[in-house]
Amino acid sequence: MSSVDNTFIYSAKNLDYDYPGGIAALKEICFDIGAGELVALVGANGSGKSTLLKLLDGLLFPTSGELLAFGMKLSEKILETGSRAVDFRRRVGLVFQDPDVQLFSPTVWEEVTFGPLQLGICREEVISRANEALELLNIVNLRERPPYLLSGGEKKKVSLASVLSLRPQVLLLDEPTTGLDPWSQGNLIDFLLQWADKDKVLVFSTQDLDVVEEVATRIIVMGAGHGIVADGKPEEFLSDSDFLLRNNLVHEHSHRHKDLVHRHPHLHERSHEH
Ligand SMILES: Nc1ncnc2c1ncn2[C@@H]1O[C@H](COP(=O)(O)OP(=O)(O)OP(=O)(O)O)[C@@H](O)[C@H]1O
Ligand SMILES: [Mg+2]
Q: Is 43 in the pocket of ligand 1 (CB under 6 A)?
């Protein structure tokens, strides 16, 4: 891929995105993401996390400002056809928040082999990658099932497998652990930590600050105004209870402890005195 500035995998320069009808979703977004970073995107509902992941995947393009990937300015034209488009699609994979949007094949096996076949990877290699992805997510038994008849968590695993089979350098995951049972969440986290290395990039959105702490080397916090309100090391923010409350990252509600019903913020440090 031709490159003018290859220092960063992504560079967002004052990027805005409005959906048709002028609905603002991202405002004045600026960041650089380098190889080796594991970035958690957090923020309240509607703050723009999914939209940002779609821009990073080249599915949407900035309304103003620009987004560079591998030193190349992403645009509809560049990603339409040609070797640069294929190279980008081989390197970057997005797992959607809602698996129903992602899954379309008649069987799980076809779902998991579709992406790599589409990108021109040879059949033998595709079979080996698809088997590996199914094993990794412990869904070999679902191979011949139609994706639309699976449970929510099973669908999520199939959409993860369909992107992992591409073996992307950049993995974009929109709320990857949502809907997974605790064993499967742990399994996915183990995988991500083993997968990560100095050349790879992970950007994932989540509402789960424990996952942020376990996986991320960097946290980007989106605010209600669709801009970035914080960007740094997770430990800088996760212990700041006022900041977490202000940005809807922790909640305060009434709850029961045996016979005592009371109210206090649920802070990241899980243990609290009663
Ligand atoms: N297809 C769309 N058309 C119009 N507006 C949209 C569309 N998708 C999202 N939006 C709006 O864009 C803003 C950002 O939405 P987005 O889905 O990126 O938020 P999010 O941070 O991922 O939220 P959540 O935590 O609920 O997943 C919201 O105000 C939302 O209503
Ligand atoms: Mg979202």
A: yes
Q: At what angle do helices 123-136 and 108-118 cross, to 10 degrees?
A: 130
**Is residue 245 one of the residues assigned to a domain?**
no
List Cβ neighbours of 242 (8 Å cut-off, separation of 6 or more).
none
85 CA to centre of ligand 2 in angstroms: 25
Query: From the CB of 227, is ligand 1 less than 6 Å away?
Result: no
Residues of the domain holding 92? 36-46+83-238
- Which residue, by CA, sits nearest to atom 11 of ligand 1? 25
Atom of ligand 1 nearest to the CA of 207: 25
- Domain with residue 203: its CATH number is 3.40.50.300
The domain total for the chain is 1
Instruction: Determine whether the shortest distance from the Cβ of 104 to ligand 1 is under 6 A.
Output: no
Tell me, yes or no, whether 125 lies in a domain: yes
Query: How far is Cα 45 from Cα 30, in angstroms, rounded to an integer?
Result: 20
In a domain, 266, yes or no: no
129 domain-assigned: yes
Q: Give per-residue pLDDT as tens, 125-137.
A: 999 999 999 999 9
Q: Which residues contact 192 (CB under 8 A, 6 or more apart)?
A: 38, 171, 202, 215
Confirm or reject: Cβ of 19 under 6 Å from ligand 1: yes
Q: Quick check: 222 and 41 in contact, CB under 8 A?
A: yes
pLDDT one-digit tens code per residue, 174-229: 999 999 999 999 999 999 999 999 999 999 999 999 999 999 999 999 999 999 99
